[in-house]
Amino acid sequence: KKQFAVIGIGRFGESLISELVRLGHEVLAIDTDENRVDDIASIATQAVQADAMDEKVLKALDIVNFDAVVVAIGGDVEANILTSITLKEIGVKKIIAKAHNTMHGKVLEKMGINMVLYPERDMAIRLARNLVSTSIIEYIELSSDHGISERTAPLNFVGKSLEEKALRQRMDITILAVRSGSEIIVSPQADYRIKAGDIIVALGPVKQLEKLHEMD
Amino acid sequence: KKQFAVIGIGRFGESLISELVRLGHEVLAIDTDENRVDDIASIATQAVQADAMDEKVLKALDIVNFDAVVVAIGGDVEANILTSITLKEIGVKKIIAKAHNTMHGKVLEKMGINMVLYPERDMAIRLARNLVSTSIIEYIELSSDHGISERTAPLNFVGKSLEEKALRQRMDITILAVRSGSEIIVSPQADYRIKAGDIIVALGPVKQLEKLHEMD
Ligand SMILES: Nc1ncnc2c1ncn2[C@@H]1O[C@H](COP(=O)(O)OP(=O)(O)OP(=O)(O)O)[C@@H](O)[C@H]1O
Ligand SMILES: Nc1ncnc2c1ncn2[C@@H]1O[C@H](COP(=O)(O)OP(=O)(O)OP(=O)(O)O)[C@@H](O)[C@H]1O
Predict the structure, then answer these.
(1) Choosing among A25, A113, A125, A131, which should be mutated to test the B contact, i.e. which has the most B CBs within 10 A?
(2) Which DSSP category does B42 fall into?
(3) How far does residue A199's CA lie from ligand 1's centre (Å)?
(4) In angstroms, how far is the first alpha carbon of chain B from the final one?
(5) Which tens digit of pLDDT belongs to each residue from A6-56?
(6) pLDDT digit string (tens) for A148-193?
(7) Ligand nearest to the CA of A33
(8) Which of A204, B32, B54, B155 is the most exposed place for a label (fewest CB within 10 A)?
């Protein structure tokens, strides 16, 4: 069981806290805004109203012993930077900070913050690749009639489960695996719900794979 | 060569326009803000100052014939929803909209928008998985002394190139492939720069793979 601190309970911070807790780990949530602290109190292991730029508070919370601290402060770029610097100075080993824009991100990188995140740019790049490459990414020929091919999930698959698409019955296609973000799900269950950007690894007759390939 | 329209030139919209152009496609950028239109004019194929809620403007731009239209308007949730509805009404086939929060996203999904994106939540979930699973994801035993293992890139690899890490010289480990986001790079070049969340597929002596596994 790991211990994390998330500073700033915006949309990113809130989703991060929820997911870390869901994965079975302890999360300390910190925010200056009392309402946000109250809203997260039932989800986070501990929720504290505090100004994260205050070194005394961070030390009192024993934050230096956490597995990682995430600076999820957004619009206030100076608060984000000052908090990140303070965490580094008191000896936090693993600091991840969300950058509000490219300039802010460069400052954080120059400061030696372990990981700097750009959610908007990241998603834009993934969407761009999804929009342009409906082409087959990889193809393995099993015989002149059968193959295995990889392609980004057609748009009309997104949000649907594999059983809803009934590919085996309707197209004689078997989904061997799905790459979703940075994970790979081998032999996905029938209730697996396809997400935007997922890459589907399909086995089937060449003609059916071509049909799959033509769907956008 | 595909044709895309991106409405709203915020951080997400701007990164999307740049990446689509970089990938060799045509992009029409639309924003009400003259400064943002001017700033993107040298990158986008075409940049137009307009209110995207205005059906007459959208029709005049022939937007219904584009391969996809992305609604990247942020804070003004009503403008985002109204623009998405208008695009659907005039017959645009592929509409992708960025949701400002979960409530907004639900409205868009109920409206039948093809793809609804949540950049902050998406990145938070990917970060959460990266933070908790430094454990080996997959392991193939080649012999009692050698194996192939997969793990998320250690934090201190992020941002560095493979040649900087010099894994073959220093640890006798060969990087067979890197999964980055939704793509897989087989036999990556020495100048490949490791990104946050990347999954490394490594071949080497069991003891060295264990050392790699213990790095956080
Ligand atoms: N010094 C500080 N200490 C602790 N929390 C802070 C501090 N400054 C700002 N915050 C909090 O950070 C949170 C996130 O900031 P903000 O809402 O500006 O970011 P955002 O970029 O819109 O976030 P997101 O994109 O994740 O929704 C806010 O709840 C805010 O109260
Ligand atoms: N009706 C409209 N027509 C065209 N553009 C619009 C309209 N309303 C807002 N925009 C533009 O959308 C752009 C993005 O919106 P905004 O900056 O509020 O979003 P954001 O959530 O901060 O974006 P990001 O997270 O991508 O940086 C702005 O440049 C704004 O001028």
Answers:
(1) A131
(2) T
(3) 33
(4) 42
(5) 999 999 999 999 999 988 899 999 999 999 999 999 999 999 999 999 999
(6) 888 888 887 888 889 888 888 888 898 888 888 767 788 888 889 8
(7) 1
(8) B54
